[in-house]
Design brief:
Elements (H helix, E strand, L loop, with lengths): L1 E6 L13 H18 L4 H8 L1 E12 L8 E11 L3 E10 L2 E14 L9 H8 L2
Antiparallel strand pairs: 1-3, 2-5, 3-4, 4-5
């Protein structure tokens, strides 16, 4: 499991003073980027050298409790499945021991033309540790 820390800023909140729902998607996107980077996968190089990118294909989200300004949050990312062209992740946002948000995310590997592509072997090895 990968952990990513972030703080809630005023710009993340809505009129009610709680984190605006769409910002949780930004939080988990940042965490996914850092997870991939921590495994040694250079997404810019994959795009430039292999002509492939990862894109969100499907996402389910559950908003369980609100976060507010100045909260220190931790995003957990766990890969649950990898296939030829797809990666499934479980992501959650925590404030201490309190679970605030959960998401199931399916990523697909695409060519720059938007067609499905196999995940390159080197990237697969880095993601799976094999």
């Amino acid at each position: 499991m990968h952990r990513f820390d972030l703080r809630v800023y005023y710009e993340d909140t809505d009129l009610a003073g709680i984190v605006y729902y769409a910002n949780y998607l930004k939080f988990i996107e940042r965490a996914r980027s850092e997870w991939v980077r921590s495994l040694g996968v250079d997404q810019a190089a994959l795009r430039a050298n292999e002509g492939i990118v990862f894109a969100v294909r499907h996402l389910t989200a559950e908003y369980l409790r609100p976060a507010v300004y100045d909260d220190l949050l931790e995003v957990h990312t766990t890969m649950t499945e990898i296939t030829g062209a797809r990666i499934r992740l479980a992501q959650s946002v925590w404030r201490g021991d309190a679970l605030l948000f959960e998401a199931g995310v399916t990523l697909v590997c695409l060519t720059l033309a938007g067609r499905a592509a196999r995940i390159p072997a080197a990237a697969r090895e880095a993601l799976t540790g094999t």
